[in-house]
């Protein structure tokens, strides 16, 4: 009986003990969770104070990645580039990005640029990063000044053109709207101005073949390509024509060149050109440049005016993916399509300089047609700076920008380690996952000792890409989807040009006809006028009017057809 009564008591004690232990565990968990929450809040506040209001977990993951890889960064050195130099420049996070709680998702550890795309697993809670790394001639981080960017990628080209000998040098700024192209090119232009005149003053630097203030003039021409039109930004936005002569030389008919004799004159022209440029506000940039702006600096022989060398500074229009333009009106849509067509052609043309592409499709766009000699000349050198926004909401764009830049010079990246490097896969991923919620990231299996830095870079670049990766606008395959629309836009611009020219011609002819009619009326009211002659002349005038109206109607019909086609195709694309 006594033993029986003990059992329930023991069991009750055990149960009580279990409950007490569970409560203690729960309390411990509560304390731990509170500590985690507190630590998270403190980290958030620290991030906020440091100007990083974005997602604290993603920020933490990016920080971990940087800590693991920062020792792979190399010092910048002069790249002895033969023909092409490709760089990336990251700008700092801006107020707009902070306001939408973007975090910094790009790391530039020269010569590598890595985009950390924030991802959620299917459970909707677990966070992880996809890292896309690319290697360039230079990777400039947000703390690098434009002076330094200039020194490595543009200064060698200034020296090259000052040496004369038919040199053709081109500096391109390429990137998403708002990523810093105009900011970078603006300052580069100022430095070019100073350097050119300093070099030209030093007459002995390049010998007789080279350019000096004594034997050469330095003149500037600035124009933009916008909406199928080429407009002179230094001469009342006059419309210009690109022509190719019998020898295949491209001539921009009507373009005015202005001689500059010192940096101040040069910069005044740049300023004027900049003010006249076509801009619109876009989501990403309040003053987005919608045109390609080309500033050409031409060195000519003082005695015979012969062109000795040329430097082109090209601030490209912001690259936008098709998806971003879905809600745009026709003007903005066609604008974007034209920009994309020219950027695709540009990529192929630059690749041809280095022998990466057999095909030089310079006729595919006005931009590449105008820059033909930058691609086909034996004395051509090119520098491309890909500017990127660091915001996490731009990560897809940034990957596209880097991929575009990467494809320009795949295989022969100027080597930051002092020897020629082998081809790296242009786009590879390393994963760095937090699960569930937040967990330590898994580092790539890299040897981190200094002597193995290059191996480590290889590992980053060649790590397996086991996640899906969406091919974006500038990939070969997806660009096919846009070809028909892009062609239609080009046809639309051509028809528009023909219609406007025809319309103008008719206005002139109409004015002449009115004068003729006035004269006819005056004649018929005179003495002894032959009414048969009057009827004959009037009949000719009326016939001519009919012809003119019918011709105009026909041109208008062709233009309207293209408008309709563009509307239908872009509707189809919006549905995709
Ligand atoms: N490296 C940088 N450091 C500080 N601010 C920058 C930097 N790059 C760009 N910015 C700022 O970012 C904003 C957008 O830059 P910018 O107008 O040069 O972009 P963009 O690429 O030319 O854009 P779009 O294609 O729309 O013309 C500007 O306010 C500019 O001052």
TrEMBL record:
Pfam families: Kinesin (PF00225). Residues 433-445 have a biased composition (Low complexity). Residues 83-411 form the Kinesin motor domain. SUPFAM superfamilies: P-loop containing nucleoside triphosphate hydrolases (SSF52540). Keywords: ATP-binding, Microtubule, Motor protein, Nucleotide-binding. This is Kinesin-like protein. One of its GO terms (molecular function) is cytoskeletal motor activity. Belongs to the TRAFAC class myosin-kinesin ATPase superfamily. Kinesin family. KIN-13 subfamily. InterPro entries: Kinesin-like_fam, Kinesin_motor_CS, Kinesin_motor_dom, Kinesin_motor_dom_sf, P-loop_NTPase. One of its GO terms (cellular component) is microtubule. Residues 318-338, 413-451 are annotated as: Disordered. ATP binds at residues 175-182. It comes from Cyclotella atomus. The keyword tRNA-binding does not apply. Residues 321-336 have a biased composition (Basic and acidic residues). Coiled coil: none annotated.
């Amino acid at each position: 009986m006594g033993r029986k009564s003990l059992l329930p008591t023991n069991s009750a004690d055990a149960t009580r003990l279990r409950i007490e232990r569970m409560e203690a565990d729960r309390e411990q968990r509560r304390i731990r969770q509170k500590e985690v929450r507190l630590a998270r809040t403190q980290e958030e506040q620290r991030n906020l104070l440091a100007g990083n209001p974005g997602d604290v977990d993603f920020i933490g993951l990016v920080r971990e990645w940087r800590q693991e890889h920062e020792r792979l960064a190399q010092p910048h050195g002069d790249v002895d580039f033969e023909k092409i130099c490709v760089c990336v420049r990251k700008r700092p996070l801006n107020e707009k990005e902070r306001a939408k709680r973007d975090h910094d998702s790009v790391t530039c550890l020269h010569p590598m640029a890595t985009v950390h795309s924030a991802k959620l697993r299917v459970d909707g809670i677990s966070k992880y990063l996809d890292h896309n790394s690319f290697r360039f001639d230079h990777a400039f981080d947000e703390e690098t000044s434009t002076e330094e960017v200039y020194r490595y990628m543009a200064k060698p080209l200034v020296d090259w053109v000052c040496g004369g000998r038919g040199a053709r040098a081109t500096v391109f700024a390429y990137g998403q709207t708002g990523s810093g192209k105009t900011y970078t090119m603006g300052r580069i232009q100022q430095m070019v101005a100073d350097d050119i005149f300093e070099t030209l003053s030093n007459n002995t630097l390049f010998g007789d073949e080279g350019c000096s203030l004594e034997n050469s003039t330095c003149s500037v021409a600035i124009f933009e390509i916008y909406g199928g039109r080429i407009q002179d930004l230094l001469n009342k936005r006059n419309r210009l024509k690109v022509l190719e002569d019998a020898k295949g030389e491209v001539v921009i008919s009507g373009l005015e060149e202005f001689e500059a004799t010192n940096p101040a004159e040069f910069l005044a022209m740049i300023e004027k050109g900049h003010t006249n440029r076509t801009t619109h506000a876009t989501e990403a940039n309040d003053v987005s440049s919608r045109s390609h702006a080309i500033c050409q600096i031409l060195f000519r022989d003082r005695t015979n005016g012969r062109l000795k060398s040329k430097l082109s500074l090209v601030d490209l229009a912001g690259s936008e993916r098709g998806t971003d333009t879905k809600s745009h009106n026709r003007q903005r849509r066609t604008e974007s399509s034209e920009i994309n067509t020219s950027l695709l052609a540009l990529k192929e043309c630059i690749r041809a300089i280095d022998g990466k592409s057999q095909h030089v499709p310079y006729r595919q766009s006005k931009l590449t047609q105008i820059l033909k000699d930058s691609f086909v000349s034996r004395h051509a050198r090119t520098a491309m700076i890909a500017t990127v926004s660091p915001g996490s909401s731009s990560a897809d764009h940034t990957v596209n920008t880097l991929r575009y830049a990467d494809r320009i010079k795949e295989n022969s990246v100027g080597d930051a380690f002092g020897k020629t490097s082998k081809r790296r896969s242009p786009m590879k991923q390393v994963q760095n996952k937090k699960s569930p919620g937040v967990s330590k990231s898994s580092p790539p299996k890299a040897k981190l000792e200094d002597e193995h830095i290059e191996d480590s870079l290889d590992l980053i670049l060649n790590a397996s890409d086991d996640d899906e990766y969406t091919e974006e606008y500038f990939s070969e395959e997806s660009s096919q989807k846009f070809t028909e629309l892009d062609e239609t836009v080009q046809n639309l611009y051509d028809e528009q040009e023909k219609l406007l020219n025809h319309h103008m011609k008719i206005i002139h002819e109409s004015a002449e006809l009115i004068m003729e009619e006035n004269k006819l009326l005056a004649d018929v009211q005179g003495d002894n006028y032959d009414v048969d002659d009057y009827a004959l002349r009037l009949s000719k005038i009326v016939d001519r009017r009919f012809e003119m109206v019918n011709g105009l109607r026909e041109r208008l019909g062709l233009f309207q057809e293209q408008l309709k086609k563009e509307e239908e195709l872009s509707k189809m694309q919006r549905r995709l």
